[in-house]
Each structure stands twice: as C-alpha cells, then as structure tokens.
Specification:
- The protein has about 400 residues and is α+β, with helices and mostly antiparallel strands.
- The protein has a single domain, classed as Beta-lactamase (3-Layer(aba) Sandwich).
- About 30% of the residues lie in helices and about 15% in strands.
- Helix 1 runs antiparallel to helix 12, helix 2 runs parallel beside helix 5 and helix 4 packs across helix 5.
- The chain is globular, with a radius of gyration of 19 Å.
Length: about 400
C-alpha cells in the first residue's frame, strides 16, 4: 500500500503517514522531505481514483489548490531578484490599466501580502470565467478595493493568482505558467504545472470534496461561505464561475487543469512541492539553479502582515507571498485554522490540507498532497501530523521555543 523510501532517522514520518490511512481517512497521498535538496522521505500510497481503484503511484499528481500561490509568488521574487520588479513600486508602473478605481497607490508588495483590498471580484462572473485570463484581468482592472489598501489584510484566496500573475506576464513577456515552467519547474526537474498538459491527465488523482463529519464544528469562514453569499467567503465560492464547486466547470475538469489559475489551479505532488522549496531552504539556489537572492529570502521569511484576517476571519501571518506559522488552536476550530511550523519557515497550504514549505534553518523542504480533502480552512490532522513528525525527527520538542510558535 505504501511505496517509496524513508531514511532511518525519519521513521516517525512513515509511521504517521501509515496512520493517516489507518485512522484519519486518507485515501491517496504523497509526502516528501528533502534536506539539502536530497530526499530523506519520499512516500506515496493509497488509491488515486476511488471509482476505478487506480492506485496512487510514484508519479501521481493532483490539484494542489492554494499551494499554487507559493509557485506564483516565487515567480515574482525571481523577477525581483533580477532587478526587473520592484516590490515597493506601484502596480500601475508595470500594469497601467490597474491604476484606476482607487487602486492607483497599491504597491506590488501589497499584492503579495494580501493587503490590496481585492480579495474578491464583485462583478458576477459567468460559468468558466476562470479559464479566460483576459476576462479575469479586465474584471480586476475595474474592481474597487474592499478596504483602504495597506490598512489591513485579508487572504486573496483566488484573485492572488491573476494579480501577481499578470505582473509576471507584464514584466517577463511570458504567461505565468510559461514563466514558471521555464524558469523553475524545468530547471529543477519538477512535475509541477500551472496549466497542465493534456498528456499528464491520465496521471492525475481526482479530488474528493470535503464532507462535514458528525460532531465537527464548521470554521467561521466555511459557515459564512455557506450562509452569507454577500460576504467575502461567500463571494469566493459563489462567484467563481463554478470553479470552486464539483462539477463540469469545477476544479477537476480538464478545462480547469489546462487553465493558468495561479492561486489555486497548480498540479503537482509532494515531490514537486518539496523540490520547489528546496532551493529556498538552501540559500536561494541548488545544484546550479539560482532562483532568488538573499534579499528575496529575507522577504519570504519576514512577517509583513499579521493579525485579524478579513477573509479567513481568524488570525493570520504573511510574508511576501507566503504563509508563516499560525497557531489558532485556542479557537473553536483549532488545528484546522492553523499552520504550525518553525519560526523561520515559510510556505503555503492548500484547500483540503495539502502544504509545501521551506525551513531554512534546517535546510529542509517539505511537501504533502492528497486527494481526500479534509474540512477546515488551512491544515488538518493528517498534514500537521506529518509536519510534526519531521520536526521531531530533526530534534525539536513539543515545548521548543523554535517550533509551534
């Protein structure tokens, strides 16, 4: 049932991975841990497709939802490291049509830190709108900020991909998916796409939408999404052209896989996520592939927006494009409103519980993907148990000041 390899010192990770299948409802999944860019854990197992019984193999991949944002943010940092993109500059310097409707002073950095006030598109979107890049860009150009830009932050769950991705396109002259493939995925040898080729489709694991479990208390974000369509959470789901719902225009359609949806549509597996973060855990480059400079790494590891999140409705912390460790275990929904990492770590979780991140102090990168989506806003017991097992394998303890911050 479980394939792959696990170094002796990381046996805890394999034990938790097996327990996820035995006790926590895992269906199909992969987990990968790299130290200095070399895998010490590379495991996969379970069933990729419940309808056919097709097993999860070494090269199985799936939709990674918001883990895609880490890839999109990395593209912006690559350009910034080359001196082509200034995070302090107004977005309109690179994208003139953006500078209207109260957005004239929004900076590139505000987009990356979820402070621009553009968490949703208020104009009703037709079915399949997410598959039309130009339509989405035009909608964002006329959108008015929901709050004064820079005054607060709120997770840009879906708009982030077009906002940052259009900057990548304007500056580089290539689409977001092309830039990521040519500058990151191909040089690092990753199975990771923003805009998935058709020939990869047979390898993909269909996602299993999360179902409420008896006794579970829904998160405030999911409650608002289900009961108040005019709220920010409600608009994220209801005004997505069908993308955020299972069905023919949803996230698991061929059209969705092929589209460049930079906030939520990436296709990869644990090895792809860990491989993308490996250079960032090792100073910005690895094996002759230099992605970013030290200034970019400082921006990735420095919290730039924190406190109450206008979208997630919990406490959150962001560096320039990445989640930092968030401990909301004191809240009613607890672990599922949290992403508990070491103090230096940065990365991104995905809807349903996937995650990729780098811990530079340990030169460690991590990836976890699955098809059976868990409830909650951020991580859940399956992903967090694997993260915890990695840190314990590295010598951290539960009461360490350096972890579970």
């Amino acid at each position: 049932m479980i394939g792959g390899s696990c170094a002796e010192g990381f046996s805890r990770v394999r034990e938790e991975f097996e327990r996820n299948f035995a006790d926590r409802g895992e269906v199909g999944a992969s987990v990968c841990v790299m130290i200095d860019g070399e895998p010490v854990v590379d495991l996969w197992g379970g069933v990729a497709d419940r309808e056919t019984g097709r097993p999860w193999e070494q090269d199985t991949a799936s939709v990674i939802f918001s883990c895609t944002k880490g890839a999109t943010a990395l593209c912006a940092h690559v350009l910034a490291s080359r001196g082509q993109l200034d995070l302090a500059a107004p977005v309109a310097r690179y994208w003139p049509e953006f500078g209207q409707s109260g957005k004239e002073d929004i900076t590139v950095g505000m987009l990356l830190t979820h402070q621009s006030g553009l968490p949703v598109i208020s104009t009703p979107l037709p079915d399949c709108a997410f598959f039309d890049w130009d339509r989405m860009i035009a909608a964002l150009e006329v959108e008015k900020p929901a709050w004064e830009p820079g005054s607060r932050h709120g997770y840009h769950a879906l708009t982030f991909g077009w906002l940052v991705g259009e900057l990548v396109r304007r500056v580089s002259g290539r689409s977001l998916g092309e830039f990521f493939q040519q500058e990151v995925a191909e040089p690092l040898g990753l199975d990771f796409w923003i805009g998935c080729p058709e020939e990869v489709e047979p390898r993909l694991a269909p996602m299993i939408f999360p179902e409420p479990r008896e006794g579970d208390e829904p998160s405030l974000f999911m409650t608002m999404a289900a009961t108040k369509p005019e709220s920010i959470p409600g608009q994220i789901f209801a005004n997505s052209g069908g993308y955020m719902l299972p069905g023919p225009t949803g996230f698991d359609s061929r059209e969705a896989h092929a589209a460049e949806i930079g906030a939520a549509g990436g296709i990869s597996n644990a090895r792809g996520l860990a491989g993308m973060y490996a250079p960032l855990a090792c100073g910005g480059g690895l094996a002759g592939v230099e992605l970013v400079d030290r200034r970019a790494l400082t921006r990735m590891t420095t919290t730039m927006s924190a406190g109450h999140d206008e979208t997630l409705l919990i406490g959150s912390r962001f560096s320039a494009g990445f989640f930092r460790s968030i401990d909301n275990r004191h809240r009613p929904y607890g672990l599922r409103d949290s992403v508990i990492l070491s103090q230096d770590a940065f990365g991104h979780p995905g809807f349903g519980g996937s995650i990729g991140f780098a811990s530079p102090a340990d030169r460690m990168s991590f990836g976890y993907t699955m098809n059976n989506m868990g409830p909650g806003t951020l991580l859940n017991e399956r992903g967090q148990s694997l993260v915890d097992a990695v840190y314990r394998s590295l010598g951290y303890t539960d009461d360490s000041a350096e972890v579970w911050c």
